[in-house]
Amino acid sequence: MKGRREGVLAGGALLGAALLLTGCAKPDRSEIVTWTDQHGRACTGVAVVDSEDGDREVTGIDCDYPPEGRQPGRSTSAPLPD
Number of C-alpha atoms within 13 angstroms, CB side, residue 37? Predict the structure, then answer.
């Protein structure tokens, strides 16, 4: 019985350490991004930036042609407001 109790306690300690380490991970962040596509449309989307490797996943993409006589602005990236 004593060996089993020590194994359970050691497993609990490992689980606690794993939870503590994952709690310290830097959270992913979201940004609003704008760009002009190859057809000249002004596009806006929300990019989720992975904190571990910097990969971006863009969702909520909305593209539209600019009004007659206007050109899209430069590409930008900004954090989402709180």
Answer: 12
Rounded average pLDDT over 13-36: 68
Q: Supply the pLDDT for residue 5.
A: 47
Beta-bridged to residue 46, according to DSSP, are 32, 59
Domain residue limits at 20: 2-79
Q: Give dist(CA 45, CA 37) in Å, integer.
A: 12
β pairing state of 56-64 and 42-49: antiparallel
Instruction: Please give the angle made by the CA atoms of 8, 14 and 20, to the nearest 5 degrees.
Output: 135
DSSP alpha helix (H) spans, 1-82: 2-23
Instruction: Give the contacts of 19 (CB within 8 A, at least 6 positions apart).
Output: none
CA atoms in the 13 A half-sphere facing the CB of 4: 1
Number of domains in the chain: 1
| pTM, to two decimals | 0.55
